[in-house]
Amino acid sequence: MRELEERMFRLSETLKGLEPENASRLLMGLKFAREELILHHMQQLEELLAALNLGEAVVEERQVLEKLQRLEELLLALDLDFQMQLERLRLLRRILQQLDTAILEEQRQERQTEELAAKRRELERLERKAATLDDLIRRQRGHIEQTRPLAALEQLSAEEQRQSEATASEQTATRQATQQLAEQEAQAGQPDANLDAAQQSMGQAAESLGKSRPAEALPSEEQALAALEQAKADTQARRERLEQELRQADFPALRKDQMQNRELTDRIAELVRTLGASGQQALSSLSSASGSMNSAEGALGQGDAAGANPPQDQALEDLMNARASLNEELERLLDALRSEVRRRVIEGLSLMLERQIAIRESTELLSPKVAAGSRTAFNSVVGLGKSEAQLIDMADDLITLVEETEFGIALPAALSVVREAMAGVQLALSAGDASPAVIEQEKQIEADLEELLQAMKRMPGSRPSNRRGQRGQRDRQRELNRLLAELRMLRMLQLKINTQTTQVDGQRPAGSLPAPLARAIEKLMERQDDLRHATQRLADERGMAERALSVRLQLLQLRPPSEQDMATAVSEVETIVHTVQQNGYKDLIPRALRIKARVMMAAAPPSANAHEDSAPAECLRQALDSAQQRGNLFEELECWRALRLYHEGANQPVQARAAGEQISRITLRLRRGDMEPARRPDSADARLEGAIGTPPPK
């Protein structure tokens, strides 16, 4: 094997100028042999045989034989371009799988650091609150010291009345400071009842002092002081709890996790580099993600969660951009393969049907002779079993091809059912059984192959465009043909399962269930489950466009406004909003409108003379109305936050304060779990069910 690898390399170098196609073929074979570690597996196999570990050696031998067979097929393939495209497809799938792992890990780490950063911010806010409370308590104690001597007097002189009025003014100022602190707490989503009680008592005390009634004011002042001291005690308890949680944070472990994810990202980048020019955009995003992860590592090494969070956000955005770019390349490759795959599948089904008919006709001719006891006819029937086994191999190849290229959803399941029927016929023929029951099974296989062939002929060779303005009547008709072809195969499968279920049910005995019948029922359950998954995939695919728009909105929301081309961003978000509204994706409408307003505000920030009916404000109000109609409290909260930001930028404090009150109200409801039941979103499943009718009963 080592000599073979060396020869493939040397020969490829020799043929590079004379026969570039064969040189590429040899290099691809060498790459396959090294990636699959064939030489390494042979060395392991040698050790197992030397140790007389024959059981594991047999398993290892089978794996080596399969890889050697694939290597041979790769080197002898007449359609080198198609095989190279399949290898590229497998590489893209492997890259995307590893990239998904990196994205999930980065999301987990980003959530952890965001929680720690939020606790740090909360602790800093509580420290500021404690300092403010200390000042309020000091001032309130001063008011009490001023009021107590006056409260002991039965009647106040003119000077003492002026002193009482002055204390009332100071108490009013303290009340206003307390009210401001209470409003800040409410806006932060942490309303403090003690502050509300304190300012209410201060108001009563100020009113009594203003009327020269210090004896009535003193109890209210003392109540206000008690409320302030209780607020301080609660704040101190929360500060101590947060400090304890922050001390328990394991920053070395967080840094190690970040380092491992960066190393995974670097390995992915090396794989992407082998894609050539088509992977340059993804490679740039991965390099940027690796740099951001490195910055996050440094911040985590210093115990700075707040400093690690922005680089992690940027790394996550870069990873998502890389995935989007690679997914586009995957879709382009799949679309380029679809026409060739369709041709191969149709040719394969036609050849299988032709050979199956020949096998059935031969079985019919030999059946009477086998029944008469002819040994020659018996051996001929056994030979037909070998021909049926070749059809099974062809079916396996088609199933692998269709699954790799994602050409059809129902086709793999349909081919698997036909293959199982062929396996049953092959066993019967290999045993010399040419009975009418076997002939009937062969006829059923022919009918199934003919049904699949007709469905495949309706299957289009390419997918319609998803771009706005490029999806015309021809594309819609092509998509309809594809859907009808898939449904035709699903219907065929469901009818076969129903027929087999009826047959098995007729064999049920009155007593316990025999083992063979139990296995037959389990197989039917597996087939029905496969059919359900295929139907679900078809339904999910119908909603793929909605999910794609959701991802584009998420990327627009994550992208910092200062780093994007505003004109391009506005154009993109308007296109998304138009598509969302036109296709009736009701669950995306609030978010699409809100992000549209955000982009408009980034392009033209609201000024002090902005009107309430400006385009961003109107867009946000439409988003808010849509969120309220859908019962989506989370999106409603985001809309109110965006409105507050707009009003603050437009110097509209009254509207900003009103938006803040709504934010506090919704935040409190969410914390209490007091949420109205949201309406179930219009899913792709429901739309598909409406298009094809109610699914058959289980």
Q: Unreliable segments (pLDDT under 50, ≥5 consecutive)? A: 466-471, 677-698
Number of distinct helices: 23
Q: Termini separation (Å)?
A: 53 Å
Order of helices and strands: HHHHHHHHHHHHHHHHHHHHHHH
Overall geometry comes to elongated
Cα-atom Rg, whole angstroms?
37 Å
Supply the number of structural domains: 4
Would you tell me the structural class of the helices and strands? mainly alpha
Secondary structure: number of strands: 0
* % residues in beta strands: under 5%
Major sheet summary line: none
What level of helicity do the residues show? over 70%
Task: Give the integer mean of the pLDDT values.
Answer: 84
Structural overview:
- Helix 13 runs antiparallel to helix 14 and helix 15 (473-506) runs antiparallel to helix 16 (515-542).
- It is built from 23 helices and no strands.
- The protein has helices spanning 2-15, 20-35, 38-50, 54-76, 80-151, 158-187, 193-210, 214-247, 251-273, 280-301, 305-371, 375-405, 411-430, 436-458, 473-506, 515-542, 544-558, 566-583, 589-603, 615-630, 633-649, 653-672, 684-692.
- It folds into four domains: 2-77; 118-247; 328-506, no CATH class; 560-687, Serine Threonine Protein Phosphatase 5, Tetratricopeptide repeat (Alpha Horseshoe), CATH 1.25.40.
- It is mainly α.
- The protein is elongated and about 135 Å long.
- 83% of the residues lie in helices and 0% in strands.
- Residues 466-471 and 677-698 have low confidence and may be disordered.
